[in-house]
Every structure is written in structure tokens, then in C-alpha cells.
């Protein structure tokens, strides 16, 4: 089947209401799942905007990622806040309730960083007792820039040990942020997607890239060793870049492969401090693309579920549930939504 002859894929999100947890633990504690859901009948996020969502965690927990450990327990990870470089939470179901863990998973982000503003972690299981974390670290010798770091641990909660050098650091293009791992079960290959942070060398305006000439902020795909999840296999490949419709940038990529073999690339557009920040997606038949953006605009945007500035989404492996942040009284809280593939479309 030729992708160019197919109708645009459609993503359908399911409203997932989750109970937030106020518990803070220094040691993990299992919790019981509890959620309700309704299905929206829409092509692209034509959801009941009056169905408000509540945070899964009522704490500042930006850029969340999610993974199920080998024992079946779910973990979420988030950007630095308070006195922690990398935050974590735990649940027995991806829909919650979630328990915030009072521990820092990456106390030392690496000598190449200044140890501050550590962003957007993503953890992947390489093998039993072997975990890799990708994250964005602020450069010690040039704090205007971030680069991608990698760290390893023998348990999901670490603590993680950072590698001596960055994983990806294209300083001439503005550095790099927002890494996410992906393992293709069909081919046995492992990858990392990330954003080249071109807006860090932009010319001003929203997120420093709203004044012409706008700088590219491409999403890159890097194949890595299946053994260590870090060693590069070949050169990175560009799979998406910003357009005028995205405003100053695209960022926060996350890649899945659905049961029918379609690759779905989630990403955010516009500036994270703007009400225009949103979650969108593109699909492809090959992991290297070309990726076709979904018609109809963002998947989740301000106003949907009574949210403001939703973004930074990560899906569970294989799809079906995603977590993302949106503005809240505490800063940016973690929310969640289910989704499914509807024939040739991904629907919400």
C-alpha cells in the first residue's frame, strides 16, 4: 500500500480521568489503578471541551515520559524542579493514581553540564537489570545551550551514572534537547529521536525564533547500538522540521510503531510559554520517513479538556496511552489520555 494514496491518518484521543496523588515517598509504594474513560467522536481532537481533565500529579512535573518496568509497575520521569535534576513517580497503572517519589534519579548530570536545568528525561530498558536514560543537559562552558546526555543504571530508579561526553551536541546548529528512545520490535533496531535546538541561536521573539530569518529546529533520528543504547550506528537523519504553521519550533518528539506497522511521530509546536503550545503528530510507512503531518491541526491544544498549553507528550511503548504536561497552579502538571488507531488513522 502506497502511503501517498492513503487518507491522512487520524489520531483519536480518549478522555482519561485520573485521580491525582498527594503522596510523597522516599521509597516506592504500590497504588491501585482507578480511571474512567469516554470516547470522543472526532477526526482531529473534536473532543468535548467541557470534559475537564485533572492532573495525574499535582506537582510541577514538566516534559513527562513513561515506561513499564519488568515487574509490571509504571514509572514517569520529568524535567528538573525543586532540588531534583530528574523527577520520578510510580503507579500500578498508566492511568494512575500516581505517587510522587522524593528522590533524584540523576544527582550528577555529567561533568560537561553545569548541573542545572536538566530537561526532558526518557528511560528505556535495554535488558533485565540494564537501563539507559536520555536527557538534556545545560553546558558548563556555554549555559545558553543544551546538549543530549546519556546515563545508565541497573535499576529503573537508579541512581543513573552519566557518560563522560554528550550523546549529541550540534553546537553550530544550536545544540540539542528533548531525546526519546525507540525500539522497533519488528526489526530489532534501536533509535533515539531528538530536537536540534535551533531557536537557541534565533533572532528574537517567541522562544527566540519568531523574528525572520527563522532558524530550523529539525527532529533527528539516530540509530544506536541495541546493546548499550548509546553508541551511534551511522549518522542522524532528519525526519521533520518546523513550518510556518508551527510558529518558532517543533520539539519534544516521541516515536511509536502501531500494530499495523505505521510509525507515529508525536511532537509539540509553538513556544512552551504560549497558549499556542500543543501536541501534534505525523505518520510514515518507513522509520526514516517521509512523515506526513496529520490534517486538521494539533491533536491536543489549549481549550481541549479545559487545558492550557499542553505539550511534551510521550506514549507508552506501542501506543494506547500518552502522558503530557499542561499549565497548572504548581507550574506544569502531568496529564494523560488514551488513544487508538482507527483503520488507516490514529484517532483520539
UniProtKB/TrEMBL annotation:
What Pfam families does the entry give? Glyco_hydro_43
Q: Which GO terms describe its biological process?
A: carbohydrate metabolic process
Point out the signal peptide segment: 1-26
Q: CDD domains in the record, alphabetically?
A: GH43_ABN-like (cd08999)
Q: Which InterPro entries match?
A: Glyco_hydro_43 (IPR006710), Glyco_hydro_beta-prop_sf (IPR023296), Glycosyl_Hydrlase_43 (IPR051795)
Gene3D superfamilies this protein is in? Answer: Glycosyl hydrolase domain, family 43 (2.115.10.20)
Positions of the site: Important for catalytic activity, responsible for pKa modulation of the active site Glu and correct orientation of both the proton donor and substrate? 178
What GO terms are given for molecular function? hydrolase activity, hydrolyzing O-glycosyl compounds
Give UniProt keywords alphabetically: Glycosidase, Hydrolase, Signal
Residues the record marks as active site: 63 (proton acceptor), 251 (proton donor)
UniProt similarity note: Belongs to the glycosyl hydrolase 43 family.
Protein name per its UniProtKB record: Glycosyl hydrolase family 43 protein
Q: Which organism is it from?
A: Cercophora scortea
Amino acid at each position: 500500500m502506497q502511503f501517498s494514496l492513503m487518507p491522512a491518518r487520524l489520531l483519536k484521543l480518549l478522555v482519561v480521568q485520573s485521580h491525582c496523588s498527594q503522596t510523597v515517598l522516599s521509597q516506592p509504594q504500590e497504588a491501585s489503578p482507578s480511571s474512567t474513560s469516554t470516547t470522543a467522536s472526532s477526526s482531529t481532537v473534536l473532543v468535548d471541551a467541557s470534559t475537564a481533565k485533572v492532573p495525574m500529579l499535582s506537582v510541577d512535573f514538566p516534559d513527562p515520559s513513561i515506561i513499564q518496568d519488568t515487574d509490571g509497575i509504571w514509572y514517569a520521569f520529568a524535567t528538573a524542579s525543586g532540588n531534583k535534576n530528574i523527577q520520578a513517580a510510580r503507579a500500578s497503572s498508566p492511568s494512575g493514581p500516581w505517587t510522587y517519589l522524593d528522590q533524584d534519579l540523576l544527582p550528577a548530570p555529567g561533568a560537561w553540564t553545569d548541573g542545572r536545568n536538566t530537561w526532558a528525561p526518557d528511560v528505556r530498558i535495554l535488558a533485565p537489570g540494564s537501563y539507559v536514560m536520555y536527557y538534556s543537559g545545560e553546558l558548563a562552558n556555554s549555559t545558553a545551550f543544551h546538549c543530549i546526555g546519556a546515563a545508565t543504571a541497573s535499576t529503573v530508579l537508579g541512581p543513573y551514572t552519566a557518560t563522560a561526553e554528550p550523546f549529541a551536541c550540534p553546537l553550530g546548529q544550536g545544540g540539542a534537547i528533548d531525546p526519546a528512545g525507540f525500539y522497533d520490535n519488528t526489526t530489532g533496531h534501536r533509535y533515539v529521536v531528538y530536537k536540534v535546538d535551533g531557536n537557541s541561536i534565533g533572532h528574537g521573539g517567541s522562544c527566540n525564533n519568531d523574528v525572520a530569518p527563522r532558524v530550523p529546529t529539525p527532529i533527528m533520528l539516530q540509530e544506536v547500538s541495541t546493546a548499550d543504547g548509546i553508541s551511534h550506528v551511522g549518522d542522524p537523519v532528519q525526519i521533520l522540521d518546523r513550518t510556518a504553521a508551527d510558529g518558532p519550533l517543533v520539539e519534544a518528539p516521541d516515536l511509536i510503531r502501531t500494530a499495523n506497522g505505521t510509525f507515529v511521530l508525536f511532537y509539540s509546536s509553538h513556544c512552551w510559554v504560549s497558549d499556542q503550545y500543543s501536541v501534534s503528530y505525523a505518520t510514515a510507512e518507513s522509520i526514516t520517513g517521509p512523515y506526513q503531518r496529520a490534517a486538521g491541526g494539533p491533536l491536543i491544544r489549549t481549550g481541549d479538556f479545559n487545558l492550557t498549553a499542553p505539550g511534551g507528550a510521550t506514549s507508552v511503548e506501542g501506543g494506547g496511552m500518552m502522558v503530557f504536561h499542561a499549565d497548572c497552579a504548581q507550574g506544569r502538571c502531568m496529564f494523560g489520555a488514551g488513544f487508538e488507531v482507527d483503520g488507516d488513522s490514529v484517532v483520539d
